[in-house]
Design a protein that fits this description.
The protein is of the alpha/beta class. The protein folds into three domains: 170 residues, Rossmann fold; 94 residues, Rossmann fold (3-Layer(aba) Sandwich), CATH 3.40.50.11420; 109 residues, Rossmann fold (3-Layer(aba) Sandwich), CATH 3.40.50.11410. Helix content is 38%, strand content 17%. The chain is built from 15 helices and 14 strands. The strands form three sheets. A six-stranded mixed beta sheet has the order 2-3-1-4-5-6, sandwiched between helices. Helix 5 links the parallel strand 5 and strand 6. Helix 14 packs across helix 15. The relative contact order is 0.11.
Amino acid sequence: MKGNELKPHIGIFGRRNYGKSSLVNYLTGQQIAIVSDHAGTTTDPVKKTMEIGGVGPVVWIDTAGIDDEGAVGRMRIEKSLEMLQQADLALILFTDNRFEAEEVMLVETCRKRGIPFLLIYSQADRFSPDAQLISQLEADYETQVFVLSVKDPSLRDPLTSRIREALPETAYVHRSLLGDVIGEGDTVVLVTPIDSSAPEGRLILPQVQVLRDILDQHARAVVCRETELEQTLGQLRQPPRLVVTDSQVYAMVSQLVPDEVYLTSFSVVLARAKGLFADYVKGTPTIDRLQDGDRVLMLESCTHNVTCEDIGRVKLPKLLAKHTGKSLQCEAVAGLSALPRPIRDYALVIQCGGCVLTAKQLASRLAPAIEAGIPVSNYGLAIAYMNGIFDRSMRIFTER
């Protein structure tokens, strides 16, 4: 799952029996999705990874029809719309010369969320497109409608080219995490605690991502636990350019790292790379304005086994209570699951680094809070703030 989540996501949306599953099979060249004349064959989103030339691997998402019926049908529609929020590009299918409330809703949602979209007139071999309708849609939405019949293999390459052109580069061209603040020959120390929440026999994904990025910059990485940090620093011939630590040991590490050495956390590094850094910086001081009874939402991008040392469910709530002296109600939501209550019920949202999400998915996840004026923060920045090292945790990014 984690590998797939970092790839660009292309969602296929439309009514039942409009050829969404056929389009997945057509584009991938495989019988991935079940195709039937019976409406509502696709009930849950189906994902398939495939390479696109010039882009690399992408994840195709086949969704249930947005005109589904009944109580279960409404749940399927909600799931499809959740997939829309994850999409880096939406393919919106329509046919039989019908472009009505459902299609308008999809387009308007994409426009509101800044999601690029393509309009595809499907099943053209069955229903001839009305030229006036196509022209009107192209004028209204400033786009070119792609007329498609999956029975015509000659259209596959032109459609793939259109998709490649519409997919934003930010979805597949990944910026360096530290390339603008470290250089060839620099030494970076990575502090990686090993506790009950650490995965057996391996590092967690943020640590791996930062380590790889350091190596890509031809810099040197030194990895140690927090219990060996003092000894590690003492054995280096010269101070490191930067120390990157797990946020949960920020307080201890900040006491050991000299002030002249840059210090930040894995979570802060990822937060900066995902594009919402300014929102986090602005929202973090809200911690000091929390009141008794306020709800704080902890958003974790992945799912994992919860332990007594879990940072989002245990350590951060305890630190918040100690720092504020208030009785707070902290709720945690993992992955991209639905929230337990309306976003306006929360006084603050604190997001993890988002190591398994694309920048677009993370932006979509936090968009409701930002639009509602709910302050947002980040695990690393929140912990740094409550340990009195908020400015220090960002100094390497601001002193340039």
